[in-house]
Specification:
Elements: H1 2-11, H2 13-24, H3 36-53, E1 56-61, E2 70-75, E3 83-89, E4 109-111, E5 114-116, H4 124-138, E6 148-154, H5 162-169, E7 180-184, E8 195-200, E9 202-211, E10 217-218, H6 219-222, H7 229-238, H8 261-269, H9 274-281, H10 294-300, E11 303-310, E12 321-322, E13 325-334, H11 340-354, E14 360-369, E15 372-373, H12 379-392, E16 397-401, H13 406-415, E17 419-422, E18 437-439, H14 440-457
Parallel strand pairs: 3-6, 3-7, 7-17, 8-16
Antiparallel strand pairs: 1-2, 2-6, 4-5, 5-18, 8-15, 8-17, 9-13, 9-14, 10-12, 11-13
Bound molecules: zinc ion.
């Protein structure tokens, strides 16, 4: 099978890239309501493509009010072979600040061997890699795959992820018989270095709302007596962390699991220079507990970050206002074995306890999911390392990710199957930022690597 697929992938690089560009032109921003129809359009585009590939039972699964659809489809024509659940997402992040983009985010543009567009790396480009890998088998020979597959693509990974979580938690018949899962939504540690992710941090997202007076006030008329929610919010935020970056929530670090000796060893072999890292960020310094290496801080320690603050007036010109409300979006990254619900409650308690008495503070927990680690000795993980060696010619690196992919944890805990978390984006892919890009060589090699992976699993 592979002997026909490999020349097919090589001969079809150009149509594969053009197909991806068409996909990327759909602005499927899940978090902004005005793009709702575009997200639906991207889902329908994927479903159409699955039908064209020859997959069976292709469906666009609508969710509750306000949720974006899932796209499913399967091929079960290899009895006795493993059944691999393939996951990716077709929604994207918003594009702000638009002026920082060198080309339009939804007009895919090639520059220096990279394809620039929102979603090129995270995650539409990788979803497309999965489909093109399948295509190499389905469109050559007799329309067969080396393994059975079940596809699960979501349209709100960058928003709430609620629909897919509920779908998986409900143990639908669709997922019966799955033997392993592949989550294609991460990247490579360095150019040319195929990478498997062995651990992900969990996440808590929260919204803190502080209310002062019942309306916005003039700071000349009322300043000095009226409470200022922005000031109060700043005081609350300042009380959540020490200047060295240690989070000040009682019990926050008590169940943090140390990385294994093996992990620490493999991390020390990775080429990583903290100073280069800092320079690449363009920052004058790094934060965090300096007793730990940067990689350790990124992969095996929890964090608390302020993601945004809103309130008052920050536009051009000036408005002497004491706002009635201030809001902060705050996220916490968790590591094994922190309990997300316990930590969420401890966070809430801490915020309320440091909130000044002259304001009313409300903490809303939006999402809470645990961290996960995977077993590098699992045969499905080894199969991926072998496929990568065959494609890239070098040994695979095992890393952890600082980010969170809640669905990977669900596949492991609800379906009870091994999960391969991997991907082909590069560190400078600008995921979630302006000038997001996908290295084209990795796009083509990624297709081949996934094809080889499925082929090994089928043997
Ligand atoms: Zn993603």
């Amino acid at each position: 099978m592979l002997d026909k697929a490999i020349p097919y992938w090589q001969a079809n690089r150009s149509p594969h890239l053009e197909g991806l560009k068409t996909f990327l032109r759909i602005p499927s921003i899940s978090a902004l309501p005005q793009y709702r129809n575009d997200v639906a359009r991207a889902g329908a585009f994927v479903a159409d493509h699955l039908r064209w590939l020859g997959l069976n039972d292709v469906a666009v699964v609508t969710g509750n009010e306000g949720e974006h659809p899932l796209v499913t489809g399967q091929w079960l024509g290899a009895p006795g072979k493993p059944t691999v659940l393939l996951y990716a997402h077709y929604d994207v992040q918003p594009v702000d600040p638009l002026e920082k983009w060198e080309s339009q985010p939804f007009e895919p543009t090639e520059r220096n061997g990279k394809l620039f567009a929102r979603g090129s790396a995270d995650d539409k480009g990788q979803l497309w890699i999965l489909l093109k890998a399948l295509e190499g088998f389905l469109k050559t020979g007799e329309g067969k795959l080396p393994v059975n597959v079940k596809l699960l693509f979501e349209g709100e990974e960058e928003y709430t992820g609620a629909h897919v979580e509920r779908f998986v938690d409900g143990k639908p018949a669709y997922l019966n018989g799955v033997t392993s899962a592949l989550v294609l939504d991460t990247g490579m540690f360095a150019p040319g270095l195929p990478t498997i992710c062995t651990g992900l941090r969990g996440i808590i997202t929260a919204e803190v709302t502080v209310r002062g007076a019942n309306r916005d006030l003039h700071s000349g008329e009322f300043g000095g007596a009226a409470p200022n929610p922005l000031q109060a919010l700043s005081e609350i935020i300042a009380a959540l962390k020490t200047p060295s970056g240690r989070v000040r929530i009682p019990g926050f670090y008590s169940s943090v699991l140390k990385p294994s000796k093996l992990e620490k060893e493999s991390w020390s072999k990775l080429f990583f220079d903290e100073n280069t890292y800092r320079q690449e960020l363009g920052a004058s310094g790094l934060i965090g507990d300096s007793r730990y290496s940067v990689l350790h801080r990124l992969w095996a320690l929890p964090t608390l970050e302020i993601n945004g603050i809103a309130g008052g007036f920050a536009g051009e010109g000036f408005k002497t206002v004491i706002p009635s409300t201030a809001v902060a979006k705050i996220s916490l990254r968790l590591v094994p074995d922190m309990d997300p619900d316990e930590i969420a409650q401890a966070f809430k308690k801490r915020v309320l306890s440091v909130s000044p008495p002259h304001v009313q503070t409300e903490v809303k927990i939006l999402a809470a999911s645990p961290a996960m680690v995977i077993d590098t000795a699992d045969p499905t993980i080894k199969a991926a390392a072998d496929a990568y060696k065959d494609t890239f010619g070098v040994q695979t690196a095992y890393v952890r990710e600082g980010g969170s992919i809640p669905i990977a944890g669900s596949f492991k805990s609800v379906q009870g199957v091994p999960v391969l978390i991997t991907g082909f984006t590069l560190p400078d892919c600008n995921m979630h930022a302006p000038n997001e890009n996908l290295d084209l060589d990795n796009f083509y090699k990624g297709i081949e690597a996934i094809g080889r992976y499925l082929n090994i699993l089928g043997q």
